[in-house]
Amino acid sequence: MAAVAISHRKDADGISSAALVRYMTGAKVFLTDYGDMVETLSAVGPASEYYISDLGSNQNTFQAFVEQLRRLSGYGKIHYIDHHPLSSSFASILRDAGVDVTHSVNECASVLVYEKYEQKLRDSPQMKIVACCGAITDYMDARPLAKKLIASFDRQFLMYEATVLSFAISIIGRSSADSNAKLIQLVEELAKGELPHEIDGASEYAQTHAERSAKLIQLARKNGKKMKNFAYFLTKESATGNVANFLIGAFDVPVAAAFREEELGYYEISLRSVDESKHDLGKIVGKIAVELDASGGGHQHASGARIKREQLNKFLDMLDGELSEPA
To answer: Where are the domains positioned within the chain?
Structure first.
């Protein structure tokens, strides 16, 4: 196998990152999430190069993550491109293991991939658009590199393409056994130069998601609950990040959390905050995840966690306590 791309399956930044790597290398694509990325890596076999993107780690998962990278480094070169918080000690361990580390919290993963391999990607305007979609949907479109890429196109056009891609990912994520296969197919279509609106079924997926979202706004207002410092809601929607954003508006709070039982006995949680919030959700959730022996982390205004169902009330209480502290 010549190359392998391993990327985040839950959002457009991860999907876009995988598509960029697929375009320039023809890589076989593996999609995963923070909670099962070690398991996914363990199933990856020999290749000459590995590209791992948009997948952060925390104290609970890092050791197993590095062990898998050391195993894979025996076959080929590993490129790790990410924008989640990464301590200097963790970065040093990765580099000592022979990993080519490209890391910055100042840009999204797909923009970092595009910048690193621009010479191989610049001949395709579609690939630049794909990188822009990652930045827009990750709310990092005002960052210097992303802003420069976005300035190459009409912004409204890019917003439309990013929305179609993001909404399509959300609807595909609701399907059961074949969701990963459909998402990989989405990556492959993007890598062929298809824009999101050109991919068969994507616009219909986006329309379905928009209709669901309109109903969710009312549902979040009706059934969501408010604690001292944030609002929360149990949903069956795969796009829990969108639901969290709806809660912010419905309850006029700076922080919101939406959770769903993706796997029996476990909750997947997405947290969002307004730009004005000084609290770093990534650090807060990472800290809580370590204490609960769970997985979790993210960025200042967007983070996620995977916890056992019986840990939910403790998670909510701990989150409320952390948000009560001065930022």
So the answer is: 3-200, 224-324
**Cα distance between residue 163 and residue 161, in whole Å:** 5
3-state secondary structure of 299: coil
What DSSP assignment string belongs to 183-250?
HHHHHHHHHTT--GGGSTTHHHHHHHHHHHHHHHHHHHHHH-EE-SS-EEEE---S-HHHHHHHHHHH
Does the 224-324 domain belong in CATH 3.40.109.10?
A: no
For residue 16, give the nearest of 106, 91, 121 by alpha carbon: 121
Helix (H) or strand (E) holding 286: helix 281-291
Tell me, yes or no, if the two domains 3-200 and 224-324 fold the same way.
no
If we measure between CA atoms, which residue out of 246, 253, 254, 255 comes closest to residue 223? Answer: 246
Q: Is the dihedral of CA 165, 143, 270, 241 positive or negative?
A: negative
Q: For 14-50, write each residue's pLDDT tens digit.
A: 999 999 999 999 999 999 988 889 999 999 999 999 9
Predicted local confidence at residue 176, as pLDDT? 59
For residues 232-256, give the mean pLDDT: 89
pLDDT for residue 60 is more than 70: yes
Contact 8, 54 (CB under 8 A): yes
Is the CB of residue 270 less than 8 Å from the CB of residue 247? no
The yes or no reply on domain 3-200 and CATH 3.30.1360 is no
The reported pTM is 0.86
Q: Whose CA is closest to 210, among 233, 237, 178?
A: 237
86-142 pLDDT, tens digit each? 999 999 999 999 999 999 999 999 999 999 999 999 999 999 999 999 999 998 999
Q: What is the token pair recorded at 92? A: 């040093």
